[in-house]
Every structure is written in C-alpha cells, then in structure tokens.
Specification:
7 helices, 17% strand, Jelly Rolls, seven-stranded antiparallel beta sheet, 3 domains, six-stranded antiparallel beta sheet, disordered N terminus, alpha+beta
Length: 550
C-alpha cells in the first residue's frame, strides 16, 4: 500500500481498499483491481476469499499477478503529478524548521497545509488538491498539520488505528479487534474521542473554576492585606495624633511648672532687691552721720561742738532689721503637684482622644441611609431627598396608598436600606428637638399595634423625652445620665457581634450600647420624630453625611 500519492481530480487509479493510488496493482478473476498488499491482507483476515467490490466468492485463493498495463498507467500518472507539483512548488512556501513539511514533495519540501488521518500523510497545497476534488478522497479526515503520523499506525499489523479498546483503554487497528482483542469492547476512535473530549472540557471547566476560585482567594487575601494596611495606617495616624497631643500636654505642663518656679524665684529676688536697696539707703545716711560725728568729735572749738551736738544727737529714722528675713520660697511638692495635675490632664485628654478614636473607628462603616415612604406613618412629612422627617402640625390622616409595611399606631418610619451581615453606621441630627427615637428594628416588627419598643419586640432604640430625659429601651427601660444633650447621634451596628451602639458625635462620647444581641433577620434603621407638640418639637430628624472626627 502506498504511503503517499499525488492525484488529479479523477479517481480511476485509486484502490477501493486503501483509497490511495495503486501500488503493485493486481486484478482478480472478476476483473476488479486492488493493491497487491491490500487484497492479500483482506483475504488474510477473512475466512473466505471474496471480492470486496462485487462480493464474488472464490473456492480457493486466486493466484494474483501484477496488472502490467495498469502499473504503467499509474507510473505515468505519478510522473505527471510530480511534474505538476514541481512546477507549482516555486509559488509555495518552503517549510521552516518549526513547521510540518509535505511528505510527498521531493527536493524542496513545502509547508504542509493539512495532514490526512487515513493516508497518514501531510500535504502541501498542490498535493492536497486530490483530497479536495476526488470523490473517494473527500471522505478522508483532514486535520491541521501534525508530525509523526506513523504513530497512528498499528506497529504490529501496519494498519490504521481506527478503534478504541475500552477493555484495555488503548487504540487498536481492525486486525487487533479480531485477533488480539477478540472478546473486548470496542468503539470507533471518533466516538471515544468525543467522549474523552467532553470529559476534558468538563475537566477544563473544573480546572478553570478552581483557578478562578484561587484567583478570587488571592484577591480576597490581597484585599485583607490592604484592609490590614489601611487599618495599620489609620492606627499609626491615630497613635501619632494621640501621643503627639499627650506630648504637647506634657510640654505645656513642663512650661507651666518652670514658669511657676521661675515666678517664685523672681518674686524672691525682687523682694531681696527692695530690702537691699533700703539697707543701702540707710547705710548711706548712717555713713554721712558718722562722718559728721567724727568731724565734730575732732573739733577744738568748744562753742561749736556744744552748739552742734544737740542736732547730731537726734539720729535719723531707721528700720529695725533684726527680724527682717528673705525667706526662700518653698518648692516642696511643686513637682508632685505638677505631676498630679499632668496625670489628671493626660487622663482627661486620653479619654477624649480615645473616645474620638473609637468614634472614628466606627465612622468608617458609614452607609447611605434614606427614609422609606412606604413605612412612614400618615402624620409624618418626608423631605424630597428622603433625608429629613418631621410630624405634621395637623394630626389628620393623609390619603396614602395601603401598604402592609406602613406604621399606623406610632409615628415611625424605617430606612429603605436593610442589613443582614457586617457593620454599618449612620448619623442623625436631633438638634432643637425635645422628643425623638432612634435605632434599628427587624423586618418582622408589628406596624399596627402598641409595643414596648424593646429588643423583645424587635427594636434596639434610645429615646429623648421632655428635652432632658434619655432612655435606653432594654427589656426594662434604663435611664441615661448625660452631661449634655447631643445635637447629633451616631448609630453603629455590628451584626455578627450582636452590638448596637449610640454616640454623641460632637462630644465623641458613647451614649449607650446594646450587647449580646442575637440577630436572625434583616435590620432596618429606625426613626421617630415624635409628635409636633404644638411646635415645641417641630424640628426634623435629619440624616447627615458623616464628617470624620479629627
């Protein structure tokens, strides 16, 4: 059987067994032609000798002789095909080292365009033409050029590997299926190929999914590292801010201590300077009197001495310096008092800075909250941007569409946003109000009847009543003692931690925390501006953007 051939569009020189150009063509007694090796192998594997085309059966194997005329015609055909290939080879590209060459070309081997899985041959454009035009060759399976086509032949029987033995999981030829693998299960290569390809596609999809999961995990890890770095940067910045403020307090107190000591020393020096000045003045006057006395005592004039003595006898007024002392100021305890005052100042500063740091830490979880008009009681008026709510001055029921989510008993309204995991924070201005409620509530709360507004009923809230009475609505109400009334309240929730905290934003102070909460459903921001109270409580609740505390 020929390994490769160059054919025109006619298929009269093709063996009907190998579908290739005849090699050593022989003719059977029924008049049909085959390659000698093809018909011999065909009869070797069958129990009877039969013509593959007309199915005529021979009692004994005919003696085959080469068809001389047909052999000469095939040889002439091959020469003409070779000349045609040679004349067109100059127009085609020679195969480069990394490319598959044509197996038919002689001399310069051109680049192969296709490989035939039936012929086990790679063809350039010229030698591929018969596979594109000849009827019998069109049935051959063409693929992109590949090398080592010999590996597609059975080494034992020199036949095409056409079947897949599912028993031994290997590719076999037709002879293998009737000789070495007689009792095994076979399927055509294409069928097994399709199955294996489907498995590979499934495996590839699984691999890509695994890759994607790992890429997502990498992204998650990178995001965690970024979050850690951001948190570290924030903590460093806060640490620098806090400790710088503390160092400034220490430096300020040190300056105050030094000034206090220097002021005492300066006062002592000024006192001493005054005393010394007075003493020097008296010394000057006394020295002048001493000079006069000495001069008079040496006088020989009796009359003059007696007349002057009476005036010298009266001494000028002087101070009794016996008990006069310059007492050094006592510095005992000055440093101790300074340290005690510093400790107190630092403690107050630390508490203030710590509160600010805590508030800043929760402010990073800010969410954009808007009011849900479908839940608003019919006395409540919402702003166009749904960021403000107040109670109407006239208590009359407005015509609003029925909605099972609407509050009909209390003047309440919920936020449009819900949260079922993570952390979130929002701020509400309560300035100018005498009554308000703030917090969060579950989705399943009752909207149509009186409730205790406690966690048992699905509420976690803080109230203001009568302008100065603050209450945390636990299962039993807890009165809160605040130094001053907040003008802006921050609400922070950690869903997984079960924490709801309220902050006085301006004072950076914690108002109250609900801890150990167990959340099992969606949480909504909750607001109640309470009744207008003849205008004394007319100010709205205003959802504010968060300005990070410095």
């Amino acid at each position: 059987m020929s390994a490769a051939s160059s054919l025109q569009s006619e298929d009269q020189f093709l063996c009907s067994i190998c579908l290739d150009v005849f090699t050593d063509p022989v003719t059977t007694s029924c008049g049909h032609n085959y390659c000698k090796s093809c018909i011999t192998q065909n009869w070797d594997v069958n129990d009877s000798c039969q013509c593959p085309l007309c199915k005529e059966t021979f009692n004994s194997r005919p003696q085959l002789r080469v068809n001389t005329l047909l052999s000469e015609m095939v040889a002439q055909f091959r020469r003409e095909a070779q000349q045609k290939a040679s004349s067109s080879s100059s127009e085609q590209q020679a195969a480069k080292p990394a490319e598959v060459p044509c197996d038919v070309c002689t001399g310069t081997r051109l680049k192969a365009l296709k490989s035939c899985l039936v012929c086990l041959t790679s063809y350039c454009q010229t030698h591929l033409e018969p596979h594109l035009t000849a009827t019998s060759l069109k049935r051959h399976q063409l693929i992109e050029p590949v090398e080592n086509l010999e590996s597609r032949m059975c080494r034992k029987h020199d036949k095409h590997l056409e079947l897949f033995c599912k028993t031994d999981q290997t590719c076999v030829c037709m002879l293998c299926s009737v000789l070495d693998h007689k009792t095994h299960e076979f399927v055509p290569l294409r069928e097994e190929y399709e199955g294996k390809k489907a498995e590979l596609e499934k495996t590839e999809a699984e691999i890509q999914q695994m890759i994607q999961k790992r890429r997502l995990k990498i992204q998650e890890i990178k995001e965690s590292v970024k979050m850690s770095k951001d948190a570290a940067d924030r903590q460093k910045a806060e640490g620098v801010q806090v400790l710088t403020a503390l160092m400034e307090s220490v430096e300020r107190r040190l300056k105050e201590l030094i000034k206090e000591i220097e002021d005492k020393q300066e006062t002592t020096e000024k006192q001493a300077e005054g005393l010394i000045k007075d003493l020097e003045q008296e010394i000057s006057e006394l020295m002048e009197r001493s000079s006069e006395v000495e001069q008079l005592s040496h006088s020989e004039d009796h009359l003059h001495l007696l007349q002057s003595f009476s005036s010298l006898k009266a001494a000028p007024p002087t101070k009794d310096w016996t008990e006069v002392r310059v007492r050094p100021p006592s510095y005992e305890g000055t440093v101790g008092r300074a340290v005690a005052q510093l400790e107190k100042t630092l403690w107050e500063d630390m508490k203030k800075l710590n509160r600010a740091a805590v508030l800043k830490g929760v402010q990073q979880y800010e969410v954009d909250v808007t009011l849900d008009p479908d839940t608003a009681h019919h006395w409540l008026i919402l702003s166009d941007d749904r960021k403000q709510v107040h109670c109407s001055e006239v208590r009359r029921k407005r015509k609003l569409p029925y909605n099972p989510k609407r509050f009909t008993y209390f003047v309440n309204v919920l936020g449009e946003q819900s949260f079922s995991s993570g952390r979130f924070y929002f701020e509400v201005q309560v300035k100018g109000k005498t009554d308000w409620d703030l917090g969060v509530a579950t989705e399943s709360i009752s909207r149509t009847k009186s409730m205790s507004m406690s966690p048992e009923d699905g509420f976690w809230t803080v109230w203001l009543r009568d302008g100065n009475k603050y209450t945390a609505c636990e299962d039993t109400q807890i009165n809160l003692s605040l130094r001053s009334g907040p003008e802006k309240v921050g609400v922070f929730v950690d869903y997984e931690e079960g924490l709801v905290s309220f902050y006085d934003v301006d004072a950076a102070a914690l108002i109250y925390s609900f801890t150990g909460c167990s959340f099992t459903e969606k949480l909504f921001p909750y607001f109640s501006p309470e009744l207008n109270d003849d205008g004394t409580n007319s100010a709205p609740l205003i959802i504010c953007p968060v300005n990070q505390t410095e």
